Amino acid sequence: MTFSLNLTKPLSRVGLLLNLGFLVVVFSGFSWFSFAYMTKVLPESAAHAEAQVVAQKAQDQAFAKAKAAAKGKAFDEKTALAEAKAKGVEAAEKEFEKIHHHAVEGWAPFAIFLLILSTIFFSGFLSIALLRRAHDA
């Protein structure tokens, strides 16, 4: 039998190669996608969200300092807000590398776990295909 999804039927050499090719494509694609997703996409989004929080906090502090320093004087809110926003962006850029490193460290074990899990499933399906081929011989 060349190719069959029935696990009780034996496989020919071509069927084994088809199964092997299918398994390699599916599991390597899943592994690459999941590893890239967990080492790039998720940490990047978490790092950007955390950087926005840091920027907002620094901006609020800078604006409060400017407002407190301007007591009794004319206070230009637009200029103070623009300066505070610039300080917030600067603070976020300083902290971004540390935040990003922390986010990557958080997701790395899960990415490794998914790679191990994918390898286990691949080897399981491969053993089924090899056993089906052995029954054909």
Helices and strands in order, then pairings?
Layout: H1 13-69, H2 77-136
Give a brief description:
With about 140 residues, the protein is mainly alpha-helical.
Structural class: mainly alpha
Low-confidence segments, given as residue ranges, are none
Mean pLDDT: 81
**DSSP helix fraction:** over 70%
Report Rg.
28 Å
Sheet-strand content, in percent, reads: under 5%
Rounded to the nearest angstrom, the distance between the terminal CA atoms is 11 Å
Shape: rod-shaped
Chain oligomer state: single chain
How would you spell out the order of helices and strands? HH
Number of strands: 0
**What's the tally of helices?**
2
Give a short account of the largest sheet: none
Task: For this entry, give a set of tags.
137 residues, mainly alpha, rod-shaped, 0% strand
Describe the overall structure.
By secondary structure, the protein is mainly α. The chain has two helices and no strands. The chain is rod-shaped.
